[in-house]
Amino acid sequence: VVLLSIGDDGHTASLFPDHLYDKDKDVVVEGNSPKYPKNRISLSYSRLNRSKNVFKVVSGISKRSAIDLWLNNVTLPINKVTGQLEKVYISKEVL
Q1: Angstrom distance (rounded) from CA 7 to CA 73
Q2: What is the pTM of this model?
Q3: Quick one: pLDDT at residue 94?
Q4: Residue 70 and residue 13: Cα distance in Å, rounded?
Q5: Which of 20, 46, 52, 76 is most buried, judged by most C-beta within 10 A?
Q6: Which residues contact 37 (CB under 8 A, 6 or more apart)?
Q7: What is the DSSP letter of 19?
Q8: What gap in Å lies between CA 25 and CA 28, rounded to an integer?
Q9: pLDDT tens readout for residues 35-70
């Protein structure tokens, strides 16, 4: 089971837009995060996508721009993680 949310810039799980990550690795070391902290460790897209269930829970008005991009099929880290079964919950305040 994976539980994710989205940052106001569209990042999820410390995976950031316009950053390239090695598809063959299970672990990602991010050394230049645009958000504090600069150094982060996460699972890769390929590892997250091996999950059976992925839940995405989004709240907070600051996420509105990122959600608009996501719902209009702009490629963001949040839509690169799906797993076998994906459930998305977006609070009404964001929409």
Answers
A1: 17
A2: 0.90
A3: 86
A4: 16
A5: 76
A6: none
A7: -
A8: 7
A9: 999 999 999 999 999 999 999 999 999 999 999 999
Residue 90 tokens, joined: 């977006």
Amino acid at 12: T
- Phi, psi (rounded to 5 degrees) for 65: -65, -45
Q: DSSP for 32-81?
A: S-SSSSS-EEEE-HHHHTT-SEEEEEE--GGGHHHHHHHHTT---GGGG-
- In whole angstroms, give the CA distance from residue 81 to residue 79: 5
Of 32, 35, 30, which Cα lies nearest the Cα of 8? 35
